[in-house]
Amino acid sequence: MIEARGLVHVFHTKQGKEKTEVRAVDGVDLDVAEGEVVGFLGPNGAGKTTTLRMLTTLLTPNEGTAKVAGYDVVTQSEDVRRSIGYVSQTGGVFSGARAGDEVMDHGMLYGRTKAEVEKRGKELFEQLQLDGLWTRMPRNMSGGQKRRLDIVMGLIHEPTLVFLDEPTTGLDPQARANLWEHISDLRSKRGATVLLTTHYLDEADALADRIVVIDQGRIVANDTSANLKAQVSGDLVTLEVADATRIGAAADQLKSLAGEVEIAANTVSGRVARAGRAVPGLLRELDRTGIELESIEVVRPTLDDVFLTLTGRSLRDAEAASDAVDAAAVEEGAAR
Amino acid sequence: MRFLRESFIVFRRQLRMNLRNPAWVIIGMLQPVLYLVLFGPLLKGLVNELGYVNAYTFFVPGLLVQLGIFGAFFAGFSLIGEWREGVVEAERVTPASRTALLVGRLARDVLQLFVQALILVLLGWAMGMEAPLKGVVFGIALTLVVGGACAAASNALGLATKSEDVMAPVINMVMMPVLLLSGILLPMTVGPKWLLNTSDFMPFRHIVDAVRTSFLGDFDGSAIVWGSGWAVLLCALAVWWGTSTFRKESA
Ligand SMILES: Nc1ncnc2c1ncn2[C@@H]1O[C@H](COP(=O)(O)OP(=O)(O)OP(=O)(O)O)[C@@H](O)[C@H]1O
Ligand SMILES: [Mg+2]
């Protein structure tokens, strides 16, 4: 359904006389098969939205080509638009218009009849728990309600290929779970293909068949969640000893399994391949040598660990760094 | 057919939003009334010197074109608001024709202008304007074409600048020479030769001339041809410009 090769987009921004060039997307290849749900993961500023805007024909790539639903995004953009649904990161419902009117007009611009869009719109309102908000203006809705309204807009014409840009930002846990279910249904009931961006590792983990990780405009990983996790060498085992003086002995025991360990006060941790098999032996050995444990923790690798292994930075660090850059830019702007 | 349907959907949406804010509609309607009632009498004493017999027959056509130009110039501001809320991007991701996205908006502006023009002309007649129906119909039609052109240009400018702060001075800069050189308030012929010659380069002056002569019932001169020519040309250019801004990425 999606076949992108070497996509590049460069933004030119001017601040006073200073011109800067941002290679927001820097050579992205992406393939998504029909019926797949693909999670597009990356820190702030990685280029997720820019990639999506190129695939949805809103931006023209500076380099590279992409076919979406079988059509070229540049030369057959109208056919592409007819075949897709798009929920943008910031939404697109006018705050001073009635929600139902906006949804219906949007659906009718796809060539649907009034009756069709009204029926489908009311269905979606119910499924996304927006009952009773049909005639309300978005300016009088909560953030999470507005977000769900954006999603209704993107799905009103029943597209078979859906682009969702951070669909769950601002949703409470219950609404998030509800939306996850809806997205799963899109595939299982309608056979739709979904490309969704997210910062939430658990979200990508739960929804996506395959995860594509983007960092600084380049794809750094592209695999199933299980395979990505397998790249991280082993599960994280953390031992907390009751007697801090025995920490050295405990560390030696763990080192024999993990190779490398980290010691902090009375805890020691290290990565152990297939910890489920190794831990019982470890416990027996600790017991035999009389080392008493306060606790033991085994954590399966998360996508955060994967990101760390791939880029040398944790997702959180990457976001903090990008925030710091933004903050610096703001300060710089204020100083002018 | 599809184009008309899409334009109509956009038009209906715009109209709905306009009507939700009736204050603007009322101000828009009041404007021609105020001009006619408060400025018209000032011309009464001068009109003979300008070579006209009836002050309103002279003044209403100029006012008509002024309404068409200046009201429409501000159409782009509301588009900036819509762009900021992501509405333009949401419309651009649908398969709707980019021209329809523009034309639907123009239709709203032209409709508003049409109602204003009707009020103006009816009031003008009530106050003693002498103009044949045929001339008035032609004059209004020409005004609507000019209004459409200005609204299209304003929408294009709004989408190109994406900022009220940038757009407002640009509009002001354009409006000044248009107002001064088009002979809307006083005919250019009363001024010195060099000013008249300069105003030859102002397309809107030819349009004002055309509307004025058509109100006098005179369809023979070259004024009508020049005026209509300019109006159609400006409209075509502005719609092309507007469409291309809707087509282009709003990076
Ligand atoms: N309109 C624009 N003009 C200039 N630079 C832009 C523009 N849009 C995005 N950028 C820059 O391009 C880069 C990629 O931005 P993009 O929005 O694609 O990131 P993202 O992965 O979607 O991030 P987030 O998780 O914050 O949504 C960033 O460095 C951003 O500052
Ligand atoms: Mg984004």
Widest sheet: strand ordering of chain A: 6-7-8-3-9-10
- Into which percentage range does the β-strand content of chain A fall? 25-35%
Count of domain modules of chain B = 1
Largest β sheet strand count, sense and barrel closure of chain B:
none
Mind telling me the C-alpha Rg of chain A?
A: 24 Å
Round the Cα radius of gyration of chain B to an integer and report it. Answer: 19 Å
DSSP strand (E) fraction of chain B?
Answer: under 5%
What ranges of chain A have pLDDT less than 50 throughout 5 or more consecutive residues? Answer: 327-336
Ligand catalogue = adenosine-5'-triphosphate, magnesium ion
Protein name (chain A): ATP-binding cassette domain-containing protein
GO molecular function, one term (chain A): ATP hydrolysis activity
Family (chain A): Belongs to the ABC transporter superfamily. Drug exporter-1 (DrugE1) (TC 3.A.1.105) family.
Main location (chain A): membrane
What does this structure look like?
Chain A contains twelve helices and 14 strands. Chain A is an alpha/beta fold. Chain A folds into two domains: 2-229 and 310-334, P-loop containing nucleotide triphosphate hydrolases (Rossmann fold), CATH 3.40.50.300; 233-300, 2-Layer Sandwich (Alpha-Beta Plaits). In chain A, the strands form three sheets. Chain A has a six-stranded mixed β-sheet with strand order 6-7-8-3-9-10, sandwiched between helices. Chain A has a four-stranded antiparallel β-sheet with strand order 2-1-4-5. A four-stranded antiparallel β-sheet of chain A has the order 12-13-11-14. Chain B has 251 residues and is an all-alpha fold. Chain B has one domain. The radius of gyration of chain B is 19 Å and the shape is globular. Chain A binds chain B through residues 11, 53, 56-60, 78-79, 81-82, 84, 86, 88, 90-97, 101-102, 105-106, 108-111, 153, and chain B through 2, 6, 9-10, 12-13, 16-17, 20, 82, 85-87, 89-96, 249-251. The structure holds adenosine-5'-triphosphate and magnesium ion. Magnesium ion binds at residues 48-49, 89, 165 of chain A.
